[in-house]
Amino acid sequence: MPKITYIAASGTSRTAEAVLGSTVMETAIRNAIPGIEAECGGACACATCHVYIEEAWREKVGPPSPMEEDMLDFGYDVRPNSRLSCQIKVSEELEGLVVRTPEKQA
């Protein structure tokens, strides 16, 4: 199972094992990772699972879809490396992925 590291705005980090085919958001919720609220449950209908993708991972994770870009408009402190973690499917290729959570969710 791929491991994902979540780094909070405070700098603390936690690493969790992810199930292949799940999402980065589902992995965070399953492992009680602080900073990921996921109010819509992964339906891409809010921006409360907003994360920042570390630069080294941006190409592997890929760009947001147009629908995700629209939802990111509601996010807090959106940056070029912002993504909704509910839209990132876990694959073997994402072993070691590092994401950061914003100071707060929208």
Q: What is the end-to-end distance?
A: 30 Å
CATH superfamily heading: Beta-grasp domain
What order do the strands of the largest sheet run in, or round the barrel if closed? 2-1-5-3-4
| Basic shape | globular
**Low-pLDDT windows of residues:** none
Based on DSSP secondary structure assignment, what is the total number of beta strands?
Answer: 5
Question: What kind of sheet is the major sheet?
Answer: 5 strands, mixed
Task: Give a verbal description of the structure.
By secondary structure, the protein is of the alpha+beta class. The protein has one domain (3-100): Beta-grasp domain (Ubiquitin-like (UB roll), Roll), CATH 3.10.20. 17% of the residues lie in helices and 20% in strands. The protein contains three helices and five strands; from the N terminus they run E-E-H-E-H-H-E-E. The chain has helices at 24-30, 58-61, 66-72, and strands at residues 3-7, 13-17, 50-53, 82-84, 97-100. A five-stranded mixed beta sheet has the order 2-1-5-3-4. Strand 1 (3-7) and strand 2 (13-17) form a beta hairpin. The mean pLDDT is 96.
What descriptive keywords fit this protein?
globular; five-stranded mixed beta sheet; 3 helices; Ubiquitin-like (UB roll); 106 residues; alpha+beta
Set out the fold topology.
Blueprint: E1 3-7, E2 13-17, H1 24-30, E3 50-53, H2 58-61, H3 66-72, E4 82-84, E5 97-100
Parallel strand pairs: 1-5
Antiparallel strand pairs: 1-2, 3-4, 3-5
Kindly summarize this structure in a few lines.
17% of the residues lie in helices and 20% in strands. With 106 residues, the chain is of the alpha+beta class.
